[in-house]
Amino acid sequence: MLxxxxxxxxxxxxESREAMEGKSTRRRRECLKCNKRFTTYEKVGDIELxxxxxxxxxxxxxxxxxxxxxxxxxxxxxxxxxxxxVDEVEMKLLNWESVEIPSEKIGQMVMDKLQDIDxxxxxxxxxxxxxxxxxxxxKDLINNYDK
Length: 147
Known about the structure:
Blueprint: E1 11-19, E2 24-31, E3 37-43, E4 50-52, E5 58-60, H1 63-73, H2 79-94, E6 100-102, H3 103-117, H4 119-129, H5 135-143
Parallel strand pairs: 4-6
Antiparallel strand pairs: 1-2, 2-3, 4-5
């Protein structure tokens, strides 16, 4: 980290703490050359994932789309609870063996999360995700619910 005063590239970290509700780390540093103190913030960079759509197209991963999925399915949860679910799915995506992930896998991850927390939200999402068109398919979805 370059010192903002003398541009020297070595410093000691004096203190670290969570900032911006856990989304970054605040570090208090001291330059080893001029001994002046300064503050830096460290945060996770953009997620560089690609989603492979059902028709074979590829597009950049969008957290906003995942947020909208959870908003539509579990509108009764508050924003913080939904954000936690999105974070959990993103963690799985980041640990995926490739940077290209089929959209079906992401949809399944969402359904797995919803199945754990809210059966109605699971059914709501699965009805759209699985393109349920008639009452018999809907009955099958309910009858095959794991929980």
